[in-house]
Amino acid sequence: MLRNGVAASPGRIIKDPVHGDIEVDAGIESLLDTPPVQRLRMIRQLGFSFLVYPGANHTRFEHALGTMHLATHLCRHLSLGVLETHLLRAAALLHDIGHGPFSHASEPVMEVFCGHGHDRVRDLLDDPATASALAGLDLDPDEVAAVIAGKHRLAGVIHGELDVDRMDYLHRDAHYTGVPYGAVDAHRIIRSTLLSETGLVLDESGVQAAESLLVARTLMRPAVYYHHVSRIAERMFLIGAMAHCEDGGDPKELVGMDDPACIMALRESESGIARSIIHRLLTRDLYKRAAYVGIGSLNRARIPQPDLRDSFRLAEEIAAAAGVDSGSVAVDIPSFPHDLMIGVSVKNHHDIVSLDEISPLIRGMNEIRRSQWRLGVYAPAEHRDRVAAAAAEVLNLRPVTKQDKLLIDTDEVEGR
Fold first, then answer.
1. Domain extent at residue 395
2. CA–CA separation, 319 vs 386, rounded Å?
3. Residue limits of the HD/PDEase domain (predicted)?
4. Distances from the Cα of 175 to the Cαs of 101, 171, 178, in angstroms?
5. Is the pTM of this model over 0.85?
6. Does some domain include residue 311?
7. Separation CA 270–CA 13 (nearest Å)
């Protein structure tokens, strides 16, 4: 059977709560059943966000399926050939196989000990079953890895500002958390996407849909992705994971685990800190905010870049000033916000221009992103006051703004 010039082998239909029916033909099915992809069933998409939103138990596997589904629609819309379609669908399905346990929560450990992030997947494609499935689709593993790493002329499909990866996770994360901010008109964006000599461009008719994706990203950041409880849990996890690795645990083995295996490794760790931290996480006995401030309250020269080891050194300094154990202080330094430069080209009647040039929303989004940034210092409830005083001294904090006070004093509604 041919669909838009692309051969579609008989396969099966998978029911998805976000997209409905997802078609899985025989070629993709062989890739779907490989160990690297099946491992994603045991990795939560949103890490520790289930401690805030009980419904946030969806997995990287579901997201990989959804991303592949949207990539299929985009390939059909662009009338791509068989090999290019196979390439993009396979890359979409495999794009997250490099994630460690609890998704982005373990990424800093991977970066410190492995020297790379989750998008470097080339070695994982040598898994025998995966290599065989790719060969069955006439795909070069190097080319698949290049698409996933964003180093291919078609990489914008899953590695761009308006990619199918982002379209799926915003919608899916909003669905499972119950947060009503992730609505994205993915099919309108797909219908408005064109293929030019320089790559993907957006037809002028899709500008509003593209802007809605930017709004969704901006609103989902504080509500879900940077919710303070999730950030606290992630920093606690990093304390436990680093302690485990420093007491004999193999960091490369750790980041290759799924969530249950990682929990077991920390429970049985030689490190008492690791065992204590994982117990606290599993019983939701979390640290509290000792400091939680925006850029306006900080001496920028005193704040290091968001490197894991630097944040740990700063935590040790604050802990020493507070007279508490270093494992009782977590410092959370997100990347400093930068101006949102979408870099998406829009084709109108006369020319191809940047979306940044024609969308007044982007300027507003940049200001909102800057106002959302927070540095957090977290500690157990019994140490919070001492750590707060020490953090103010060590970081030379200025008086907090009215907006900062609102965020500190107002407890956000949590689905508990």
1. 289-336+373-416
2. 9
3. 56-179
4. 22, 6, 5
5. yes
6. yes
7. 46
**Number of folded domains that form the chain:** 2
Q: Is residue 243 part of a domain?
A: no
Do 159 and 304 lie in one domain? The reply is: no
Angle at 52 between CA 250 and CA 361, to 5 degrees: 100
Distance of alpha carbon 261 from alpha carbon 139, whole angstroms: 32
Please report, for the domain that includes residue 27, its CATH number: 1.10.3210.10
Q: What is the pLDDT along the chain (416 residues), one digit of tens a residue?
A: 444 444 455 578 999 999 999 999 988 999 999 999 999 999 999 999 999 999 999 999 999 999 999 999 999 999 999 999 999 999 999 999 999 999 999 999 999 999 999 999 999 999 999 999 999 999 999 999 999 999 998 998 998 778 999 999 999 999 999 999 988 999 999 999 888 777 788 887 888 888 888 889 889 999 999 999 999 999 999 999 999 999 999 999 999 999 999 999 999 999 999 999 999 999 999 999 999 998 888 776 566 667 899 999 999 999 999 999 999 999 999 987 666 555 566 665 556 656 666 566 777 777 788 888 899 999 999 999 999 999 999 998 876 555 554 444 334 444 44
Q: Does residue 341 fall inside a structural domain?
A: no
